[in-house]
């Protein structure tokens, strides 16, 4: 669980400090929505046994996925929106890149 917390939550926020300082409003708008969406999908996925995560917690499996819900998923989504806003191009390539990175994790 410590690995999930370090890699899934603390490391992404430490890496993204530079972007947060550049666009704080963007992170304040994107992060809560992304956390809510990722928690919803992870809860559904754990409930229907679409995926499992270690450490396996019998009482509530979603606890093992929470560091990712609060860490890597909002940071990647905010970075995607920041990149689309900054580059000012069509968003489809960036959305497909986001889902590729998200599936890799």
Walkthrough of the structure:
Keywords: Membrane, Transmembrane, Transmembrane helix. The structure is a single chain. This protein has 6 helices and no strands. It has one domain. By secondary structure, it is mainly α.
**Residue ranges: pLDDT <50 for 5 or more in a row?**
none
Count up the helices.
6
Structural class: mainly alpha
Quaternary structure annotation: single chain
Shape: globular
Most strands sheet: none
Cα(first) to Cα(last) distance is: 16 Å
Average pLDDT level: 86
Rg measurement, Å: 14 Å
**Extended strand count:** 0
The succession of helices and strands, N to C, reads HHHHHH
How many domains make up the 3D coordinates? 1
Helix content: over 70%
Beta content = under 5%
Features:
transmembrane helix; membrane; 105 residues; mainly alpha; transmembrane
Question: Could you give the topology of this structure?
Answer:
Layout: H1 2-15, H2 17-22, H3 24-47, H4 62-70, H5 72-87, H6 92-104
Helix pairs in contact: 1-4, 3-4, 3-5, 5-6
Describe the structure concisely for a colleague.
The chain crosses the membrane at residues 25-50, 70-87. The chain is mainly alpha-helical and 105 residues long.
């Amino acid at each position: 669980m410590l690995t999930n917390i370090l890699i899934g939550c603390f490391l992404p926020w430490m890496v993204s400090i530079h972007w947060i300082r550049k666009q704080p409003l963007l992170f304040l708008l994107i992060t809560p929505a992304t956390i809510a969406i990722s928690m919803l999908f992870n809860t559904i996925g754990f409930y229907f046994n679409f995926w499992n995560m270690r450490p396996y917690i019998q009482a509530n499996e979603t606890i093992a996925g929470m560091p990712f819900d609060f860490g890597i998923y909002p940071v990647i989504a905010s970075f995607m929106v920041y990149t689309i806003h900054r580059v000012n191009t069509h968003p489809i390539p960036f959305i497909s890149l986001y889902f590729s990175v998200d599936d890799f994790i």
